[in-house]
UniProtKB/TrEMBL annotation:
PANTHER family: STRESS RESPONSE PROTEIN NHAX, UNIVERSAL STRESS PROTEIN UP12. InterPro entries: Rossmann-like_a/b/a_fold, Universal_stress_UspA, UspA. It comes from Streptomyces tsukubensis. Residues 47-79 are annotated as: Disordered. Residues 6-136, 153-293 form the UspA domain. This is UspA domain-containing protein. It comes from the Bacteria. Belongs to the universal stress protein A family.
Length: 303
């Protein structure tokens, strides 16, 4: 394929079928082919010398059911079906190297049903080379902090102290593809705490209004750099104090997509990381969550 595909990871569960529907729409919007991928953790046993061994490995009842469910639909992008053998938590990130986007459900068939996010989703969000969308189960309840205008909306979390704007760029692109407005959410710590001579943390004597104005100015500065490339996207900045994850989860109600960045690799911790805000949004947001890899390596002093 000359154009990298969108990959939809399926395992026959209802969660993966919801993810497949999201991926179908995404592939059409991205004008990309869709690769429907089933990772089988254990290959079907085959006897040495058995002429049917190859067919046992190629037969995939999960993909057969998916194909049957898609038969006759006219809204499909170019399709490819593939089966891979291996541990999904390792194989899906490996497959992402040849994809524009990886989409999967929040829970699969394995593990504990009570968990809010499966190990495959967590590993893929942390390790994949491309952006990963995790589609949550319906019915997640969140408390809206304030009413929002009707219409399609993409939400992006933007730490104003970050020098990487990959998540913001991705969110602008998605908002333009979807004909949606963009809600940029930033949060600042309040009250700030300082260390005293007697060994206690106490609230600093800061001006809350000054902190709000500074945060808004930094956020607007970032957004202004992206507006010229996406003049049709109406972007609004929402700045609140306190818990960034809580604000993003609240804003997820009614949104088409919530976009967050993944931590960059650090010099002293070369493994890929998911920040606490990203993990909380993955666990609790009511809308599909896109985790976007950030670029480069940052020193520990950068936070």
């Amino acid at each position: 394929m000359s154009t990298l595909p969108v990959i939809a990871a399926v395992d026959g569960s209802e969660d993966s079928l919801r993810a497949l529907e999201f991926a179908i729409v995404a592939a059409r919007l991205w004008e990309a082919p869709l690769r429907v991928l089933h990772v089988r953790q254990y290959a079907a046993p085959a006897r040495t010398g058995d002429p049917a061994a190859g067919s046992q490995l190629s037969n995939d009842p999960v993909l057969d059911r998916v194909k049957d469910g898609l038969t006759g639909r006219s809204d499909l992008p170019p399709l490819e079906f593939a089966t891979a053998e291996g541990a999904p938590a390792r194989t899906l990130p490996e497959e992402s190297a040849g994809a524009q986007l990886l989409v999967l459900g929040s829970r699969g068939r394995g593990g504990f049903a009570s968990l809010l996010l499966g190990s495959n989703g967590l590993a893929s969000a942390r390790e994949a080379d491309c952006p990963v969308v995790v589609v949550p189960r319906p019915g997640r309840e969140v408390i809206e902090e304030s009413p929002v205008a009707p219409g399609p909306r993409v939400v992006v979390g933007m730490p104003v102290d970050s020098t990487d704007e990959s998540a913001v760029a991705f969110a602008f692109e998605e908002a333009e593809r979807r004909g949606a407005r963009l809600q940029v959410v930033s949060a600042y710590a309040w009250p700030t705490l300082v260390w005293t001579a007697v060994g206690d943390y106490v609230p600093a004597v800061d001006d809350k209004e000054e902190a709000l104005v500074e945060c808004e100015a930094l956020a607007e500065e970032v957004v202004a750099r992206h507006r010229p490339r996406h003049p049709r996207v109406a972007a609004e900045v929402t700045v609140r104090d306190g818990d960034a994850a809580g604000h993003l989860v609240s804003c997820s109600a009614g949104a088409e997509l919530v976009v967050v960045g993944r931590h960059r690799r650090r010099l002293t911790q070369p493994g890929r990381l998911l920040g606490s805000v990203t993990q909380a949004v993955l666990l609790h947001a009511a809308a599909p969550i896109a985790v976007v890899p950030l670029k480069g390596i940052e020193a520990d002093s950068a936070g």
